[in-house]
Structures are given as C-alpha cells and as structure tokens.
Amino acid sequence: xxxxxxxxxxxxxxxxxxxxxxEAASWFQAxxxxxxxxxxxxxxxxxxxxxxxxxxxDETCLLMINMFDKTRSGHIDVYGFSALLRFIHQWKxxxxxxxxxxxxxxxxxELQQAFSQMGYNLSPQFSQLLLARYAQRSSNPSIQLDRFIxxxxxxxxxxxxxxxxxxxxxxxxxxSYEDFLTMVVTRMM
Length: 189
Description:
By secondary structure, this protein is mostly helical. The chain has a single domain, classed as Recoverin, domain 1, CATH 1.10.238. The protein contains eight helices and two strands; from the N terminus they run βααβαααααα.
C-alpha cells in the first residue's frame, strides 16, 4: 500500500483534455463523485490516503485545493487536478526519501534530517513541537504523508514571507504585530 489516490473502483481511461495526462483524467472522473466537473475538498479527501490507510486531513486538502484553484471557487477542474497529482507525486517521492526505515511515516530523527537536507536550520525543539501538533498520538509519534506536505507547504510559505522582510539576509526581522498577522493571513489561510 502506498500513499496517494487509492479509493474506489479502478478508474476508466477516458478521453483526456489537451495537456492532461490520461491517468490524471481517469482519476479525476473517479474522484468527481457528484459528476460536477470539479473536485471539492471533500471529494479530494476521499480519494487520498496515507500509508496507514487514513484519509488525508482536511487542512492539507484545503491547502492543496487552494493552491491549484485558479478561480478561487473552492474546487478544481481537471487541469488543476492533474497539476495537483504531479505535486503530490513529487512530495511523495521526497517523503519516501526521508522515510529511511520505510515505515510509511516520518519519525522525529527523520524529520530533523529532512529539514536539514532541505536547508532549514531548525532546532530539535521545533521538530518536537511539530510532532506534538501534527503526529497521531502514540508512544512513537510520526508524521504521515498528508501532514508532511502540510508542514512543508506552510514552512516554505512562511519562510518566503520572512525572506521578504529579511532583505539583508541576517536571519532576524523587526515586525509590527499587524505585519506579522498580515504575513500569517496571506500565507496560511
């Protein structure tokens, strides 16, 4: 069992629109449960599973829909869905690269190594905070693919916002409270 689209009957190969991978078009037809011609957050959530067969969480699905929703309508068409599948595939490959023990989830040590290899200089305390916030409760907390995507998207977005203010690349910025809130609202919500 792997991460990604995995629910429902095997999608049929239909006629794919120009520029859309036929497999993505088939998945789109299978995922578009209400036959609206668009994929909603709810439909996307039902189509994506982690290695432990849990569905992707609402927050990650919403972040991804918003990323590929060019019309700001709350859903994506077949073109957005095709791009989203490529995006998930790239993150899945990265996830598997950092899941060194092939457990299907990222442990604390693997998360620390992932951050380091991605160029982030983050403390073990910060990684522990992320595990406490995003991992399933257990004696050995770890991060599934959906939360890994969410964490990395949010980390990248907030880092970009920080770099816009850190023009001297010194690693520190001075922000007003409203500037901080504006960064959060425009990048995370």
